[in-house]
């Protein structure tokens, strides 16, 4: 009895330690975001006097200056265009590729899947110089469509990893029933597999969209025209301008405006995102 009671006390103490630790981690992660939010409503005098104090009033004109003093709207439009093209390319290429690698066994299929898995660890920054030279030789610099295709290519290994785990969890019985009804491989993919793999597809689309939306180094190198630059590059330029102009309120306001789309995407699809990561990770 004493041993069981002692074990329960130890387990309860461990749970409380874990809870306290998680609360501390949450506070450490959330505080910079909250500081960014209320700093976007502070005047320059308030920020320079005490950067960590709460604003005395809400300076909404910071958001107006953030838009006026930068190409923020143009940058947002460029980012939206690039993200949409990226998602279209992933849907057209990664989903059929993952389906073929999982369902059809042919010579080299396992090797191809392993290569895709290994490519997850290869970042574009590691091959930036040859990538730039190749894009320059193909006259694809300052080309938003080419950059979107490049982003999609960068996301292919992760997309195939998640989707292959999802597709393995789908029983073959559904495909066999569809074949009996006269469906071909393409129609089976569109009508049967993709609806059943919706959580995995949503997960891939959300993570790929956020990755393309926030990507900075490749966009900085590939897009030098200010009218074609994406939001992260535009924010970096705004930071350089506002830092010397000491308009910190406008800078923080621009950062908040840049966060809003990713927060909305996560809030809308968080259920599918969590489900997709769990199933894709377990079955992959």
TrEMBL record:
Keyword terms of this UniProt record: Cell membrane, Membrane, Transmembrane, Transmembrane helix, Transport
Cellular component aspect of the GO annotation: plasma membrane
Entry-linked InterPro entries: BP-dep_ABC_trans_perm, MetI-like, MetI-like_sf
GO biological process terms, semicolon-separated: transmembrane transport
Topology in the lipid bilayer: Multi-pass membrane protein
A matching Pfam family: BPD_transp_1
Coiled coil: none
Positions of transmembrane segments: 12-34, 80-101, 113-133, 145-167, 188-213, 248-268
Annotated compartments: Cell membrane
Location of the ABC transmembrane type-1 domain: 76-269
Keyword Metal-binding (UniProt): no
Family: Belongs to the binding-protein-dependent transport system permease family.
Name this protein carries in UniProt: ABC transmembrane type-1 domain-containing protein
């Amino acid at each position: 009895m004493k041993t069981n009671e002692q074990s329960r006390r130890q387990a309860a103490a461990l749970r409380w330690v874990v809870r306290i630790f998680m609360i501390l981690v949450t506070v450490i992660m959330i505080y910079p975001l909250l500081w960014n939010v209320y700093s976007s409503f502070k005047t320059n005098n308030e920020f320079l006097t005490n950067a960590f104090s709460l604003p005395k009033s809400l300076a909404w004109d910071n958001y107006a200056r953030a838009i006026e003093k930068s190409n923020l709207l143009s940058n947002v439009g460029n980012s939206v265009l690039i993200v949409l093209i990226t998602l279209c390319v992933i849907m057209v290429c990664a989903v059929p590729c993952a389906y073929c690698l999982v369902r059809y066994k042919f010579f080299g299929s396992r090797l191809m899947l392993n290569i895709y898995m290994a490519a997850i660890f290869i970042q574009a920054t590691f091959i930036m110089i040859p990538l730039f030279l190749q894009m320059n030789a193909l006259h694809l610099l300052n080309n938003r469509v080419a950059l979107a295709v490049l982003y999609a290519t960068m996301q292919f290994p992760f997309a195939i990893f998640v989707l292959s785990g999802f597709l393995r969890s789908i029983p073959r019985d559904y495909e066999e029933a569809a074949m009996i009804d006269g469906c071909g491989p393409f129609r089976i993919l569109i009508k049967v597999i993709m609806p059943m793999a919706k959580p995995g597809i949503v997960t891939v689309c959300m993570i790929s969209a956020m990755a393309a939306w926030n990507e900075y180094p490749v966009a900085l190198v590939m897009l030098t025209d200010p009218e074609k630059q994406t939001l992260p590059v535009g924010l970096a330029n705004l930071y350089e301008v506002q830092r010397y102009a000491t308009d910190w309120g406008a800078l923080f306001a621009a950062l908040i405006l840049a966060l809003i789309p990713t927060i909305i995407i996560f809030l809308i699809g968080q259920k599918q995102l969590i489900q997709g990561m769990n199933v894709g990770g377990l079955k992959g």
